[in-house]
Amino acid sequence: MTEVQLFLLASLVTGFYVSRLLLRLAPIQSELVLKTIIPMVLAALVALSGFVNYQATMLLEIVVIVLVILYIFGPMLLIALARSRFYKVVNPILNILYQTESAKKALKSFFAQIALSQGNLDLAVSFIDENEENPLLLAQTHVLKSEWQNILDLDSLAAPHDQEQVINVFKVRALIELGRLDEAKRLLAIIKSKKSQNPLVYKSVQLSEARLLAEEGRFAETRQVLEGLHSAIAPYQIFEVLARAAEQQDNLESAISLYQQAYKLSPQILREKYAAKLKLFGQSPPEVAKTATNTATLALMAAIALAYVIQFFLEKKYGIAIPRMAAGFLLNISPVPQEDAVWRYLSYAFLHGGLVHLGFNLWVLLDIGSMYEKRRNWAYMLASFVLGTIMGAVLTVLAEGAIVSLTGSAIKQVLLVGASGGILGIAGALLVDARFAKDAQDKRLVSSLIRWMIMITVFSLVIPNVSLWGHLGGFIGGMIWGGASLGLSEDKNTINIVGIISVALMLYSLFMSARVLWGII
């Protein structure tokens, strides 16, 4: 399988997930969806040409690669830019990729949702201006601005069928905020009688019931209702409702503590509201912890990319084998200087089989690494990468030895290169971390990671020269680290020691690789 075919096959799988997302925004016959499905079909034809009696021309390969980049990775880039708050470049790219207003509006409504989740009201409104027929987005905007009467003025019948009751739930919230509790109870009873199958309606109905109980100062009952919502709504909303219940119960000490928690966990746009509440009680807003960064992930990506640049020039000058003999993980390959050295269990992560191999690994590392680093910290992310890389090589040795012993087959020569084992180590640690969390997003993350791991396993089985044991070993190593790290102290000194050891091991493996390389050339 050529590098182009491998790239297109991976793009085909990526396109499947992209098209699923786009189908939530627009029908299949729309420009938005068709422009992703057509490159997927073409990518499949070219990627599978090696398995049938058909040879794709170079021109066709170039055309398909361009279409894949534009309409499979293009929508992903737009969403990534929006989530990273680079909105200034979103609209120009959107206008280049899509021509119909329906396609642009569908994506803009999605960007409005992202902006709202970030508490960026002005940007959300700028997207919604062109989507005024979307009452759900307008309702969410009015909630952030506390424009309760505007919510009551919305026509819920104008919303799509599955959103009608969601709009009515927003109206229940507005009635509660305006002190019209009897009307809120009547509307809530009507919504419940409709027995909507929309999970968003069910969740919102429960939250509305909790809000009504809070207004009556029934703290214990409010908490009981909210216990079933811990995994379904944002934590700041839980603290806000409980704070209101405590306030109405005249339990001011608890109310202050709960409003402080709501303040710390809420989006920036809502903090003014909670600050005003705290001011009424003679309290100042609490300090908010700084937003977590992904500096270590970016530094690791830069190191891997730099290593590939060096590898590229070495291959051009001395041949493809030289860097691999110097830093790759070698099994049953000799004679090579220090072929069975321990440091090779880690150094191979900084070599790659080509630009496509490198590109996909860096892409996944940016996503998975950033997520785990922000959840835990820089040191734990690097530790999971190191242990995953090592375990990828360890399981390869054990599995290949077991296969020879059990089947009596010939000893196989194995060369491992690539950061995949380390990246899967991060994924394994992230899976364990998310598995023990109660947030609804974490439950979805666990499902996504499991599906992704199944896909990686299938890829490893069907694509030649892809290491199944290296991938599985990396994932297992990450899960081991994830479980172990749950019991580690959150003390800064402990964290720093873990990070320093991880960095030191990587530097040592690279230094020893450089020594071998110097001896070879």
Note down, in words, how this protein is organized.
The protein is an all-alpha fold and 521 residues long. It is 73% helix and 1% strand. The chain contains 25 helices and two strands. Strands 1-2 form a two-stranded antiparallel sheet. It is globular and about 85 Å long. It starts with a helix and ends with a helix. 37% of the residues are buried.
Shape: globular
- Coarse structural class: mainly alpha
Number of helices, counting only DSSP H or I runs of 4 residues or more: 25
Strand order of the largest sheet: 1-2
Mean pLDDT: 87
Radius of gyration: 27 Å
Q: How would a textbook summarize the main sheet?
A: 2 strands, antiparallel
Kindly report the name of the CATH homologous superfamily of the largest domain: Rhomboid-like
Level-1 CATH class name of the largest domain: Mainly Alpha
List segments where confidence is low: pLDDT < 50 over at least 5 consecutive residues.
none
In CATH terms, what is the architecture of the largest domain?
A: Up-down Bundle
How far the N terminus sits from the C terminus, by CA atoms, comes to 31 Å
- Give the DSSP E fraction (strand runs of 2 or more residues): under 5%
Number of strands: 2
